[in-house]
Amino acid sequence: MSISTTIVIRMEIQKSVATFGEVAAAIGAAGGDIVAIDVIRSAKEATTRDVTVNLHESANEQIVKVLKSMPGIRVVNVSDRTFLVHLGGKIEISPKLPIKNREDLSQVYTPGVARVSMAIHNDPGKAYSLTMKRNTVAVVTDGTAVLGLGDIGPEAAMPVMEGKAMLFKQLAGIDAFPICLNTKDPDAIVQIVKAISPGFGGINLEDIASPRCFEIERRLIDELDIPVFHDDQHGTAVVALAGLLNALRVVGKQLETVRIVVVGIGAAGVSICNMLLAAGARHVYAVDREGIIGRGAAYRNPEWERLAAVTNPEGIEGSLADAMRGADVFIGVSGPGVLQVEHLESMAQDSIVFAMANPNPEIEPDVAERYVRVLATGRSDYPNQINNVLCFPGIFRGALDCRAATITPAMKVAAAKAIAAVVQPDELNEQYIIPSIFNDKVVEFVRKAVIETAIESGEARRIPPDFMDRPEPETR
Ligand SMILES: NC(=O)c1ccc[n+]([C@@H]2O[C@H](COP(=O)([O-])OP(=O)(O)OC[C@H]3O[C@@H](n4cnc5c(N)ncnc54)[C@H](O)[C@@H]3O)[C@@H](O)[C@H]2O)c1
Ligand SMILES: O=C(O)C[C@H](O)C(=O)O
Ligand SMILES: [Mg+2]
Q1: Tens of pLDDT along 182-227?
Q2: N or C: which end of the chain has fewer CB within 10 A?
Q3: pLDDT tens digits along 364-394
């Protein structure tokens, strides 16, 4: 499956040799969809036009080749809109106030700033009120599991991390910094993150391959007093649970009784299994390349050892095909092409399929939709986008606002229920089990659920003003 993209082709058409109708027909035949035409110049002999074409990425070269081979057509330039929006990066730092004169300068910089620094030196807690710490998250990656693209390195990870930072800011007002590390050594990653932590209110680990991600996250949670959250694990699990709660309502089945197959037991898969079990699921089957994980086998990955003991209650052995027979739910966080039509045909009635691998899902949605009752993917170009972007802005907004030191399992379950609750009962249907990321209730609901849970459990070290009338938590 290829990714759809938009290109703008500037072309000169010799009127006596070719017509725009021929150009349009050629673009259509090569798989392109013309969405806009702008006339740039029109002369007696020739016109120059910018033609905006939506197409599958794989058709890109073909369309340009066809146009170049047509008599009377000169392709002047081809620009890819997706690349254009990345030119020079997608984010920047801008000051909150201008420095207009010497007085301003002496306040925000030397000498005034020294007094502020000393105030923090005398009381480090003041970093929360006198610096950007309280609103700042580091988005940290080593570039080893970028989307489903694998170990593509820290530089190549940067556009994804910049994208996460954009979403943090736009959706939750959080200032997030993309930090791409040129090391894969867990000890070094832990050490570096600890060393940079003073300036941050939270750490969002991103696209770090399993199983190293588990150890890195655990050590950082133990050693830091700010929330550390591996988005690919928990953000994904929170949103998957939210989607599943609503999908089960649509099909009229219960979490406790459905058979759920989770494929790709890496960062996301491990956390999804844990989250499903924590929420009450009893029939979870974890499948990776070697087949169904179960008791009796020995695994080098301690997370798999643990999952083997708590999933697959009947001890089924075999491949994905064996797990899928009679399954009610498939959740894929593996890679493209893992799921075949035969697998879907062998599922129970009213099946639910979340094919969440990015950028290309486990099965092509256009193929799968005929065989399943509820279909979701991680992508924004199909209905039901199950993507961790529905979680990380709101969960960090809540954790930062109540200054929680950790994001607990209870806070994650509360976040999942909050996301599910954004879809009103009368709106719920097969095509709408999960709210859009542009629904501004998502961050509001998640933030509220996270803060309420943190206050109840004593995790909150600050009561946000809008929660002031509620009971005081124990202070630590
Ligand atoms: N939609 C979302 O919000 C979201 C969030 C996180 C991850 N993802 C996607 O999920 C996938 C996994 O991400 P991750 O961070 O967990 O990566 P990861 O590298 O930690 O884990 C991937 C796991 O999938 C397994 N796998 C790969 N191909 C398989 C196959 N053919 N059959 C069975 N197992 C297979 C691997 O062995 C590995 O255990 C990626 O495509 C990623 O883009 C989606
Ligand atoms: O980045 C995304 O779109 C989701 C997720 O974090 C992923 O790694 O695929
Ligand atoms: Mg990710």
Answers
A1: 999 999 999 999 999 999 999 999 999 999 999 999 999 999 999 9
A2: C
A3: 999 999 999 999 999 888 899 999 999 999 9
Q: Which atom of ligand 2 is nearest to the CA of 148?
A: 9
Which ligand 2 atom is nearest residue 357's CA?
9
CATH architecture, domain 119-226 = 3-Layer(aba) Sandwich (3.40)
Q: pTM for this structure? A: 0.91
Q: Which ligand is nearest to the CA of 384?
A: 1
Check if 164 is active-site. yes
Domains 4-86 and 119-226 share a fold: no
- Please say if the pLDDT value at position 112 is more than 80: yes
3-state SS track over 15-38: CCCCCHHHHHHHHHHCCCEEEEEE
Both tokens of 83, joined, read 């690349």
Mean per-residue pLDDT over the chain, rounded? 95
- Residue bearing the CA closest to ligand 1, atom 29: 334
> Which superfamily does 231-476 belong to?
NAD(P)-binding Rossmann-like Domain (3.40.50.720)
305 residue type, one letter: E
**Rg, C-alpha atoms of the chain:** 26
Q: How far is CA 176 from the centre of its chain?
A: 15
- Identify the active-site residue in 100, 133, 164, 371: 164
Considering 15, 44, 100, 109, which one is annotated as catalytic?
A: 109
CB distance 147 to ligand 1 below 6 Å: yes
> CATH for 4-86, among 3.30.499.10, 3.30.70.260, 3.40.50.10400, 1.10.443.10?
3.30.70.260
